[in-house]
Amino acid sequence: MELGESLTQCAVREAREETGLEVEITGLVGTYSDPRHVIAYSDGEVRQQFNICYTAKAVGGEMTPSDESTALEFVAPSAFDDLPMHPTQRLRLKHYAERRDHPYLG
């Protein structure tokens, strides 16, 4: 997040930077802050990850990988289980696919 940005503005910017897509935020899946979700980066930085997970729709742009992504594709929720990912990422996708009435707060 950059100074002067709201959370949703940050999400829109990050989506554009990492995917090439212009998106419109449509909802909130939840907030995720599992203290066991620790990421060690190749430059030696280690941090406890947290996430605010939104739903969005693409309104423009073209899918283009960036320095922060190696490949991009849309995947049907029925294929989520076949993807390799951290358990906390899997939880976010599970909550998205469930189309919950209220956002997850954890």
Short précis:
The protein is built from two helices and five strands. By secondary structure, the protein is α+β, with helices and mostly antiparallel strands. The chain has a single domain, classed as Nucleoside Triphosphate Pyrophosphohydrolase, CATH 3.90.79.10.
Could you explain how this protein is built, in words?
By secondary structure, the protein is an alpha+beta fold. The protein has a single domain (7-100), classed as Nucleoside Triphosphate Pyrophosphohydrolase (Alpha-Beta Complex), CATH 3.90.79.10. 24% of the residues lie in helices and 29% in strands. The chain contains two helices and five strands. The protein has helices at 7-19, 87-98; strands at 21-32, 38-40, 46-48, 51-61, 104-105. It has a three-stranded mixed sheet. Strands 2-3 form a two-stranded antiparallel sheet. The longest helix has 13 residues, at 7-19. The chain is globular. It starts with 6 loop residues before the first helix and ends with a strand. The model has no long low-confidence stretch (mean pLDDT 93).
Write the layout of secondary structure elements.
Elements: H1 7-19, E1 21-32, E2 38-40, E3 46-48, E4 51-61, H2 87-98, E5 104-105
Parallel strand pairs: 1-5
Antiparallel strand pairs: 1-4, 2-3
Measure the end-to-end span: 20 Å
Helix percent reads 10-25%
Mean pLDDT: 93
CATH class, named: Alpha Beta
Helical region count? Answer: 2
What's the Cα radius of gyration? 14 Å
- Which residues form runs of ≥5 with pLDDT under 50? none
Note the run of SSEs as H and E: HEEEEHE
CATH fold node name? Nucleoside Triphosphate Pyrophosphohydrolase
CATH architecture assignment name: Alpha-Beta Complex
User: Strand order, biggest sheet?
Assistant: 4-1-5
Structural class: alpha+beta
Tally of discrete structural domains: 1
What is the percentage of strand-forming residues?
25-35%
Shape: globular
Looking at this structure, what is the CATH superfamily? Nucleoside Triphosphate Pyrophosphohydrolase
Extended strand count: 5
Report on the biggest sheet.
Answer: 3 strands, mixed
